[in-house]
Write a structure and sequence with these properties.
CATH superfamily: Ribonuclease Z/Hydroxyacylglutathione hydrolase-like
Bound molecules: zinc ion
CATH architecture: 4-Layer Sandwich
CATH topology: Metallo-beta-lactamase, Chain A
Helix content: 25-40%
CATH class: Alpha Beta
Largest sheet: 7 strands, mixed
Low-confidence stretches: 1-27
Structural class: alpha+beta
Shape: globular
Strand content: 25-35%
Radius of gyration: 23 Å
Mean pLDDT: 90
Order of helices and strands: HHEEEHHEEEHEHEEEHHEEEEEHHEEE
Distance between the termini: 72 Å
Strand order of the largest sheet: 1-2-5-6-7-10-11
């Protein structure tokens, strides 16, 4: 028996030494050998809100394990599994999309959030896909100051958008730059946001960035998390930033606690309030972490909401 084992191993090693392509060529030469493609994907999507041209930009997408620890930290594993099974999604992993939006109002190019930056983001590539260069961006709006939203403000130590002015929530900026914020994420804000302070203005509830783009305070995910109502020629769109970050777990169950919500109760209250408005007024929204192209509608259902991905409703 030992000899058999040795012979078998030798045979296997011998086979392994043959280049894979050569061994395939002898057996599959009648098949087209197109390579498997694991990457790819569309880096931007374009649609209209009134006269505004809106582009969602895929900055990055990553897979994370153990999603219950992120999206359902106050429910039982059984409940999490049942809901996931019923919605045909796995419980061992989830996919995060990072989706800045750029809006051409006809007079200004306004970018909302900047992606992961030097940490794996591709904001410049996605912008280029949509037909724009960083120096064409007139206004950069920051919804909140988590790393995946401010990461692209600087590239290689220089401003990514050299001609832009900047807008963010007054409460958000105050929180991350107050004394003692260093060490809790404040150091990243110092590095990426503060260099633009002289070109930055601050908005509160109901104040405009430009005509047709209005701040809506939705505090909870962060202390000054701000979303935006886009209005043009009677059409509306809400840029909901990180209001609700999973299309099933956070929409169907807005009270499920989310790891990254700094004030979990306030975040749940905002989810119910804003999603309720989107559902009753039939307003489409862009969710920063929704499955790309990150554009959808909301319908009310028992205890929560249902995400309805947009198809062609808003296409040019
Ligand atoms: Zn985020």
């Amino acid at each position: 028996m030992p000899e058999v084992t040795i012979n078998r191993r030798s045979a296997l090693l011998g086979a392994a030494a043959v280049p894979l392509a050569a061994s395939l060529a002898t057996t599959t030469n009648s098949l087209a050998a197109a390579p498997m493609q694991s990457g790819g994907g569309t880096p931007f999507a374009r649609f209209k809100t009134g006269a505004f041209e809106v582009n969602t930009l895929l900055d990055a997408a990553v897979t994370r394990e153990n999603p219950q620890n992120i999206f359902g930290i106050n429910v039982t594993p059984d409940e999490f599994k049942t809901v996931s099974d019923n919605n045909l999604i796995p419980t061992d992993r989830t996919r995060f999309y990072f989706t800045p939006t750029v809006i051409n109002t006809g007079s200004e190019l306004v970018l909302f959030d900047t992606g992961l930056g030097d940490n794996g983001g591709n904001i410049k590539g996605a912008l280029a896909g949509a037909g724009y260069t960083p120096d064409q961006v007139d206004v950069v709006v920051i919804t909140h100051m988590h790393p995946d939203h401010i990461g692209g403000l600087m590239s290689g130590g220089a401003p990514t958008f050299p001609n832009a002015r900047y807008v963010t929530g007054a409460v958000e900026y105050g929180f991350w730059t107050k004394e003692g914020a260093e060490g809790g994420g404040g150091e990243l804000v110092s590095k990426l946001v503060k260099p633009h302070a002289e070109k930055m203005t601050f908005v509160n509830e109901g104040e405009a960035v430009v005509s047709g783009i209005t701040a809506m305070e939705a505090f909870g995910h962060t202390p000054g998390h701000t979303i935006y109502m886009i209005e043009s020629n009677g059409d509306q769109l809400v840029l909901a930033a990180d209001l609700a970050n999973h299309y099933v777990w956070s929409l169907a169950y807005p009270e499920w606690e989310v790891l990254f919500d700094m004030n979990k109760e306030a975040a749940a209250t905002q989810r119910k309030k804003v999603l309720g408005m989107l559902a009753s007024d039939k307003i489409p929204f862009v969710g920063y972490h929704m499955p790309f192209p990150a554009l959808g509608y909301v319908q009310a259902r028992e205890g929560g909401f249902q995400y309805v991905p947009a198809s062609y409703q808003l296409q040019l």
